[in-house]
Design a protein that fits this description.
Helix content: 40-55%
Order of helices and strands: HHHHHEEHEEHH
Structural class: mainly alpha
Radius of gyration: 26 Å
Strand order of the largest sheet: 1-2
Distance between the termini: 64 Å
Shape: globular
Number of strands: 4
Number of helices: 8
Strand content: 5-15%
Largest sheet: 2 strands, antiparallel
Length: 265
């Protein structure tokens, strides 16, 4: 629609310029046409800028303000669990687990280059998601259980780790849907209770992360990656914003120059 309107406007302007030059002569007519062209160019630039801002994706500052505290807490929890597993033997690839926690730490706690972009939030949540899966593997294998399915994380709180099953969820004011759930959240649903969803503060108001709209897209991208998110509105927003982080293409540090604090003895 915008393209067709712009084409029609260009035709009208061209015809108008021809008539001005024809009636007023080359000198005055050309000057008026030039002045008109400058005015039109300024108007077009202004309209284009407004349209660009309206179509703009997540605003980095709002995303970082909402999710930096969330991811800092998630990283601390995962690092503490990794520390407890440090003497549990080689049930998981220690270097890979350490690498993902290290990479997330560099995004979240880098004082020289603090995270300022939505892409940074996606990378941090993606690395934490990978570390959370490896921790779930270590816990399951340590109990003699099968390796957990590498699927979507728990819908109610992605930091709970990968799903153990899928459940039906009918949120208040929302549509009924099938969601992934960890063991604890699955038990609550089966008992007829609603598991609490992870909260994120947007505009000073705490809300379920999956109800926070585009602010949550970078966080969800890191955890769900290429998987479909079960909330229709947030899934629609994700399709409009290209996923920029892929753990399969991320090179983890081959050598760490110090023992990470979560493995300190």
């Amino acid at each position: 629609m915008v393209v067709q309107t712009a084409a029609a406007a260009a035709v009208v302007l061209a015809v108008g310029a021809f008539l001005i030059v024809f009636w007023l002569g080359p000198g005055v007519g050309a000057a008026l046409v030039t002045a008109g062209a400058v005015v039109v160019a300024v108007v077009v630039a202004a309209v284009g800028f407004v349209l660009f801002k309206l179509r703009e994706g997540p605003k980095d500052a709002e995303v970082v303000a909402a999710y930096l505290p969330v991811l800092t807490a998630e990283w601390s929890q995962a690092a503490e669990e990794a520390k407890r597993l440090s003497g549990a033997g080689d049930v998981v690839d220690r270097d890979v687990l350490t690498g993902h926690l290290w990479a997330a730490e560099q995004v979240l706690f880098n004082q020289e280059a603090p995270v300022r972009t939505a892409d940074g939030i996606t990378r941090a949540s993606g690395h934490i998601a990978e570390a959370r899966y490896l921790l779930a593997v270590a816990e399951a294998l340590g109990r003699g259980e099968p390796r957990p399915h590498r699927g979507a994380p728990c819908f109610f709180d992605p930091a709970h780790g990968p799903l153990t099953d899928k459940v039906r969820f009918n949120p208040e004011g929302g549509a009924d849907r099938t969601v992934s759930a960890c063991g604890s959240c699955r038990a609550l649903v089966e008992a007829g209770e609603v598991p609490p969803s992870k909260q994120v503060v947007v505009g000073g108001t705490p809300t379920d992360y999956w109800r926070a709209g585009w602010v949550s897209v970078p966080y969800v991208d890191g955890y769900w990656q290429q998987r479909r998110f079960p909330d229709h509105e947030l899934h629609r927003l994700r399709r409009g914003l290209k996923l920029t982080w892929d753990p399969a293409e991320t090179e983890l540090p081959a050598h760490l120059d110090r023992e990470p604090p979560w493995y300190a003895g």
